[in-house]
Every structure is written in structure tokens, then in C-alpha cells.
Amino acid sequence: MKYLDEFGDPELARRLLDEIHAVTTRPWAMMEICGGQTHSILRHGIDQLLPESIELIHGPGCPVCVTPLETIDKALAIAERPGVTFCSFGDMLRVPGSGRDLLSVKSAGADVRVVYSPLDALNLARENPDRQVVFFGIGFETTAPANAMTVHQAERLGIGNFSLLVSHVLVPPAIAAIMESPRCRVQAFLAAGHVCSVMGTSEYPPLAQRYRVPIVVTGFEPLDLLEGIRQTVVLLEAGRHEVANAYPRAVPDAGNPAAIAMLGDVFEVTDRTWRGIGRIPRSGWRLSPRYREFDAEERFAVSDVRTREPAVCRSGEVLQGLIKPHECAAFGKQCTPRDPLGATMVSAEGACAAYFAYRRLDLARRS
Ligand code: SF4
Predict the structure, then answer these.
(1) 326 lies in which domain range?
(2) What pTM did the predictor assign?
(3) CATH at residue 306
(4) Is the minimum distance from the CB of 342 to ligand 1 under 6 angstroms?
(5) Are residues 320 and 292 in the same domain?
(6) How far does the centroid of ligand 1 lie from the alpha carbon of residue 310, in Å?
(7) Distance from the CA of 312 to the center of ligand 1, in angstroms?
(8) Are 174 and 290 part of one and the same domain?
(9) Which of 66, 119, 164, 342 is the most buried (most CB within 10 A)?
């Protein structure tokens, strides 16, 4: 634990905070893209230690939260089929579809399993040739390489009873969509360090120039976040719309070339719908023609499932940073982690769940 402790060193944190206070001369609003960063910020109270003039806006980088309702309903429809073993990471099991979730389908008798890796699902397929084994492949550029490698392995080993329900999304088009919104208040971004450890930093300079925003690649521990915020404020104060890397111990500028090559082989870019946000052009991946036979959506013919979000849930505005979770009327009342209405309250990385877990119920009552 010594390594992690070092990145939470209170003395170093105080020094970074002092520097942030010293360089800040006016109000700034910056968005942390990743839900993991949001949780870390709230868990460590970083937002409360910053100058009052710095606002942290929580971004859409929670994979569970942005997976569209439609895709959850497709997962439910596939999981209920006889002969199907449906595999997923645990955090997807309680995400509500239109009225149900994977856990309730499992308790009604469907073979739904929690796995720790897509390769576990592939092994299940190999060991059970009479079953159709489906893995729920969601997430950003971080989870996609393992899913790509699993499909590649399935093809190489000829495991035809495996398929992937794909809902992968990409960060750079989401940044563009946020900046294009007329209600956007974001002046800078803390880019998600783990995404950049896969993809590198080359996609960000054009965005920084086009939208005139600094983008700082940032990690997840308290000192990582404070250093990312410090570098962001320095760039903002100087009026520099540049990309900086505040997480060099994990992020080489070129990313992970082997992972990028695998992604390019197995996936192709496509338009994707983001839950609560809507369709963003060229913002996700689907299986490339060579691997299309492993596409669960086509194999189980669920492409035409259509759904509607519950009207009361404002998770789309939360995900775009337009409101804070406690500004939703249902927060902490009809909607709690025990009884979630939207994915941002279910997911371990969701902003609503973070506000509920770390302190914001009181704040909601006061406001
Ligand atoms: S508090 Fe619940 S209902 Fe409100 S936006 Fe968050 S998830 Fe949706």
C-alpha cells in the first residue's frame, strides 16, 4: 500500500492546493471526464478544498451510465432466451432497463453470470458447446481492448457459440458534443488517464485548438487530481489552449500500440447513442465486417428494440454537466442507490451515486 499512500500524502497535497490558490485569479469551470475521477474528488473532498471560484463539472465518463436503455433491454431480451448464458461485469446487473434489470431476469431463471473478464465468458463457451454464451461488452477505450482480444481469440480458436453485445463509446467525440451544446459552460477538461494510457494523447490537440480549451491528462489518486487541476488552472490563466500530460507515469503519448492495433482490427467506428445524451456521430465502436458473425445483436435479431427513458430522471443533464445530481427532484427521494431510477445512481462510477455516498444528501435537503 506504500505506493498508493504516497499519492495521498497530505503534505504534498497541501502544497499543491497552495499553488492552485496562488495561481487562481478568477472563476473557472473545468470538467473531469471520468466517473472514477468524480468519485475520487468527492471521496477525498477535493472540491471543497479548491478555491471557491473553481467549479468542477462532472462529465459523462461512466460506462454503465451512458449505456443506452435500448442496449440494456436488448441484453434482457437475449438473456431470457433458452440456451443462452449471459455474462457481464457485476455493475450492469442492477442497471434498470424498461422496468427490469439483469438481476431480476436471473432470479426468474435465466442463466446470467457475473464474470471478471471477457476471457472467462470465452472459457464458458469453450466448456459448454451446447450453450450460446454472450458477453456484455460495454465501456470506453479502457475496456475495449480486452473485448477485442476475446473476439479475436474466439475467431482464432473457432469458438462459434460465443458472441459480444457491443456498446463501446469513445471520449473525444463526447468532448466535441459537450462543447457544441449551447448550454455548455466548460472551459477546460481533465482527460481520463486510463483512456489515454490505451489511446495516447494525439486525439486531443485538435479538440483543444478547435474549442479553445486546455485539456490535461489526469490520474485518479488525490495528488494526481490536484496536479491535473493545478496544470489546468495554469493553462487557463495564461490563455493557452494546449494539451498537457499530468499523468506521465501511466500515459505515454503514443498510448499502447498493441492495444490500438487490436482495436483497429476487431472494431470499426460507428455512430452511438449515449444514455441521456442522445446520438453522437462516430462516437463508438462496433465489430468490423470480419468479426460481425460474433455480434450478439445480429445473432439474436434484437436490433429493433426501442425504449423510452423515465421522464423524471435527469441523468442526461447530469452526464453533460448541465445540472448537479442534487438538483434532480428525485435525488435521495424516489431515487437512491437501493432503488435507482437511472444508471447514474446505480453505477459505482455514477455522479448521482457519488453525491449520495459522500455527502450530498444533506446538501440536497438544505437547497
Ligand atoms: S438522482 Fe436518480 S432520477 Fe435523478 S438524475 Fe440521478 S439517477 Fe436520474
Answers:
(1) 315-366
(2) 0.90
(3) 3.40.50.11740
(4) yes
(5) no
(6) 10
(7) 8
(8) yes
(9) 66
Number of domains in the chain: 2
Choose the final residue of a domain: 263, 293, 310: 310
How far does the centroid of ligand 1 lie from the alpha carbon of residue 363, in Å?
15
C-alpha cell belonging to residue 189 = 477538461
CA of 74 to the centre of ligand 1 (A): 22
| Residue type at position 327 | E
The Cβ-side half-sphere exposure at 6, using a 13 Å CA radius, reads 3
* 359/217 same-domain check: no
- Is any atom of ligand 1 closer than 6 Å to the C-beta of 315? yes
- Rounded to an integer, what is the distance from CA 139 to the centroid of its chain? 6
- Per residue in 308-319, pLDDT (tens digit) is 777 888 988 898
pLDDT of residue 198: 98
Shortest-distance Cα residue to atom 8 of ligand 1: 313
Q: Give CA torsion, residues 316, 172, 218, 211, to 10 deg.
A: -90
Report residue 367 as a C-alpha cell: 437547497
Task: Determine which residue's CA is closest to atom 3 belonging to ligand 1.
Answer: 313
298 and 356 share a domain?
no
In the predicted model, what is the mean pLDDT of the chain?
Answer: 92
- Whether residue 263 is predicted with pLDDT greater than 90 in this model: the reply is yes
Question: Same domain, yes or no, for 326 and 305?
Answer: no
Asked if 332 and 202 sit in the same domain, the reply is: no
Give residue 335 CA to ligand 1 midpoint distance, Å.
Answer: 6
Pocket test for ligand 1, best of 67, 323, 335 (most atoms within 8 A of CB): 335
Task: Indicate the range of 8-17, 182-191, 337-346 predicted with least confidence.
Answer: 337-346
pLDDT digits over 134-162, tens only? 999 999 999 999 999 999 999 999 999 99
312 vs 305: which has the higher pLDDT: 312
Residues 50 and 182 in one domain: yes
- Tell how far the Cα of 60 is from the centroid of ligand 1, in angstroms: 14
Position in ligand 1 atom list of the atom nearest CA 351? 6
Final residue of a structural domain among 267, 292, 310: 310
Q: Is 64 in the pocket of ligand 1 (CB under 6 A)?
A: no
Question: CB of 49 within 8 A of CB of 43?
Answer: no
Strand-by-strand arrangement of the 215-218 sheet: 54-61, 28-34, 188-192, 215-218, 243-245
Atom of ligand 1 nearest to the CA of 352: 6
Query: How far separated are the first and last CA of the chain, in Å rounded?
Result: 39
Q: Is 355 in the pocket of ligand 1 (CB under 6 A)?
A: no
CA angle 195–338–102, rounded 5-degree value: 65
341 Cβ inside 6 Å of ligand 1: yes
Label residue 285 by pLDDT band (50, 70, 90). Answer: very high
Residue 51 has pLDDT above 50, yes or no: yes
Residue 101 has pLDDT above 80, yes or no: yes
